[in-house]
Please model this.
Amino acid sequence: MAATAPGTGSDTATAAGAPRRLATVTPENLRRRYRRDRFMIGLLVLATAAVLVPLLIIVWYVVSNGISAVLTADFYTQDLGSPARALQGRPTGLGHTILGTMVVDGLALLIAVPIGVGAGIMLSEFPDHPLNPVLRVLNDTLNGMPAILKGLLAFSLIVKPMGTFSGISGAVALAFVMLPIVARATEGVLRIIPWSIREAGLALGLPRWRVVLNTVLPAARVGVVTGVLIAFARAAGEAAPLLFTSFGNNFFSSTPLRYLLGPVDTLPARLYSLAISPYREWHAMGWGAGVILLVLVIVTFVGTRIVTRQRRATEL
Amino acid sequence: MEPMPHADDAPATAAATPATDAVSNRVVLATPKPQDAGQGDARATVAAEAVTRLVTDRITVNYGKTVGVRDVSLAFRDKTVTALIGPSGCGKTTFLRALNRMHDLTRGVKVTGKAVLDGTDIYANGVDPVTIRRRIGMVFQKPTPFPTMSIYDNVVAGLKLVGIRNRALLDEVAERSLRQAALWDEVKNRLRAPAGGISGGQQQRLSIARALAVEAEVLLMDEPTSSLDPQSTMRIEELIHELKHDVMIIIVTHNMQQAARVSDYTAFFYEGDLIEVADTNTMFTNPREQRTNDYITGRFG
Model:
């Protein structure tokens, strides 16, 4: 057996008289290749761990600190009130914050989804339209813009004219966060829908917009929903755009309309204010707000995974 | 179903072609509007009594600097099947897609020349491609059911999506179209099922039904059986035989046996030129051009 010199990739004769061939499958060579394979997989496992470990630490830290707060009924049914309530052990909670978050985030979705999906359709389906490049630049700019500037934008657009902080202005600020994400996700998913579906629709004598709305978009439904949920999860965690738009509130609003037209509390902004407060009781509630946010985001992402996976299963 | 071109079409064809090539003594379909000499000799024509509904006049399609097809002038008669054959890249599909303005959507594609349907040039200013495509339907190489719609909704998509909501009418159209496409009996009990759940052959017939539902008068078929098994292919070919009593069919095919089986006329394309057009019998037994002969006898392509 004419073994290759270690570490060389040169071709050698495998046996006397046998035809010369590349020594790619000698035992030694194979062993080295398997070793290298295991090494690379080890690196990948390390990289995965580097992502997962900090995540798990954060989740563990937040949950272990916040669990006592979120396991009380008062946390969901009471509003915060003054610090005295917490200090004296009277009922206090973040019910108004959770409600306010639902109102602001829900309204932001209502604003961002139609506009974002529309923008995504424009980006993907009408590449020759003169507004297309303009929209692309605007969308990319909006995507890269710091969230606090989006808050400032909503402040000058809505808070200043209205003369008051409001849920609406907070929703608009969050919509600015969601918009570019929804638009990009929609564009991306529309692009992978086979061109043949569009042609089939057009060949039936359907106008272009009909084809997009009734044949292409439904086919892309799952991807669009995924994009919307990602945008939602992203925006739900933003505090910066809400600081001077929805502002914050220690109480349930007096009327439902006041959630839109008056200052409302939101989880990220409240988390911040509780965390910088000087009261240990409020710190615990801040951790509780963190748990709720975390659950919201995780549920959203896991929901996304389930929706997409089910879809794939039915297609096969 | 008779596999070969219908014998009863032959006399009509002969009567419809007054111009014969003196040299080769074969049928030449001359242009309705004779072009100046030197424009090529493959010209389409029809006699006065034949119902010519679609005529192309020097259709040329350019992809940027590349020429897809060049100066194709052909005439298509009502209730006939015309096969477009030729090796890959010869321009037959490009030409077919020019007939219902499918090139409009592709950037960098330029179509010149005329395609006149019942006296109207579909490329004239002010002609809406949408109205053209309702009259000239298309069936693609791969079946293209709308994936999120039911079988029923697929068939009536062309009507429903332009605002026709009359249930009774839609039901009637759905049944008629599915019967015409020889699919009714197979799907009548599961019209609400997703269209993606039926076989490829059924999906292709569904695509045909969908085109018929908007009362297309011309059906363009771009290799409609190339992704189907022999059984489904046979069903589609039988269907073509039946459909030609109602509509005009222009079919692109790579399969010369198929062209011979289903078509009344055959046009041979080569490298972007229309080389020869004749009734299918003549084309396959006694072609005028050497290149045609070489192709149909399998010497190239």
